[in-house]
Amino acid sequence: MSATAPATQQHHVLSVLVENKAGVLSRVTNLFARRGYNIFSLAVAPTDDDRFSRITVVVDAESAPLEQIVKQLNKLINVLKISELDPQDSVERELMLVTVKATTETRSQLVELAGIFEARIVDVGHDELTISLDEEPARLDDLEDLLRPHGIVAVQRTGRVALPKLDRAPAHAPHR
Question: Which of 2, 28, 78, 110 sits at a 20 to 30 Å CA gap from 20?
Fold first, then answer.
């Protein structure tokens, strides 16, 4: 399971509101496994109401039609609501920690590159730096690509989280 989908593959981002009970995540992931649906990314955490959790799952659109995925998820008792999040109408973020080789000659370049991406250097060793960036998945891909020639020692990505963009229309028309 990779953290992000390759740019050439189509995927769906689903936000699944579930009851925050033991075994719910296991039932959801087992459903995907039994049906052969390919998961690119999976993130889960409690919501502001600890009775519920939100699962953000990025699914390969070619492994199953969206309608089929939603239909199967709706059959699970603890699933309360499923929303597809269009990347154009949602805010998506992912966290990446990446440790990269940092020689005396390249350390300043890496610090500058981190600055350009507004990433943070969170750990420093004699020959390595660990950089943290939380951003849109494509920006993480870009930073990772630029760090690769320096020698990536380890990389860990959280998987995507997403929420719908907020409505920017006024709640009611101003009085005249």
Answer: 2
